[in-house]
Amino acid sequence: MDSEAKKLLFDSLYSTVKAELCEAPGCHDFDHTLRVLRNARAICEMEGEGPDLFVVELGALLHDIARPEEMASNGKTCHASEGFGKAAKLLKEAGCDDALAEAVSLCVKRHRYRGSDAPVSREERIVYDADKLDSIGAVGIGRAFHFAGRTGARLHNTEEEALSSEAYSREDSAYREYLVKLRHVPERMLTKSGRELAVRRAAFMKAFFAEIEAEIGGGER
Ligand SMILES: [Fe+2]
Ligand SMILES: [Fe+2]
Q1: CA 212/CA 215 separation, integer angstroms
Q2: In angstroms, rounded to a whole number, what is the distance separating the alpha carbons of residues 44 and 51?
Q3: CA of 111 to the centre of ligand 1 (A)
Q4: 133 Cα–ligand 2 center, Å
Q5: What is the rounded distance in angstroms from the CA atom of residue 72 to the CA atom of residue 135?
Q6: CA of 131 to the centre of ligand 2 (A)
Q7: What's the confidence (pLDDT) of residue 92?
Q8: What is the pLDDT, as a whole number, of residue 180?
Q9: Is the predicted pLDDT of residue 219 greater than 80, yes or no?
Q10: Could you tell me which residues come within 8 angstroms of residue 136 by beta carbon, excluding any fewer than 6 positions away?
Q11: For the chain, what is the total number of helices (H) and then of strands (E)?
Q12: Which phi and psi (to 5°) does residue 49 adopt?
């Protein structure tokens, strides 16, 4: 596929994804998709020769395409598994050949990686890392507070309150999300470049939560 055909295909899918995600909540809206796309391009560039940039770009663009189906089913439908078929259909309708459609839709299927469906190809690993990267650092802090605000959680709580609480409770604070999940993200990255970026973002998050602890506990003086 020449660069003009690639651009036409990308632009057409960009409009489709934007329309599909217009109702998605703040943490997983089209802005999230665009950040993941930027992260994916950055990781691809850092990784050097090897990964197919176009597969990575389309995989990042389409990775959360089935969020609306997951929301409509109250979480019963997994957006990654559902997204696999949905992405393949959209790609073929847009004129992709079978090999490209398969490579991209596998990035969608494996971007979540909960137990099974581990990312295999370099492109799948890059899309996975790009998505994880958006959950940490300054953006990750913003998203964690955004989510906690929507579920009615407290601004901050102690480590004990956070760790002994349930998800979606008043104690399901941004700090709980950090302690339970986000601080472990760097060890779960699958590419060298993704890990490098994650370590930097994780350090910022660690400093942020140390500061909020100090301010709230009076330890800043
Ligand atoms: Fe996702
Ligand atoms: Fe995502």
Answers
A1: 5
A2: 7
A3: 6
A4: 10
A5: 23
A6: 5
A7: 96
A8: 96
A9: no
A10: 182, 185, 186, 198, 201, 202, 205
A11: 11, 0
A12: -60, 145
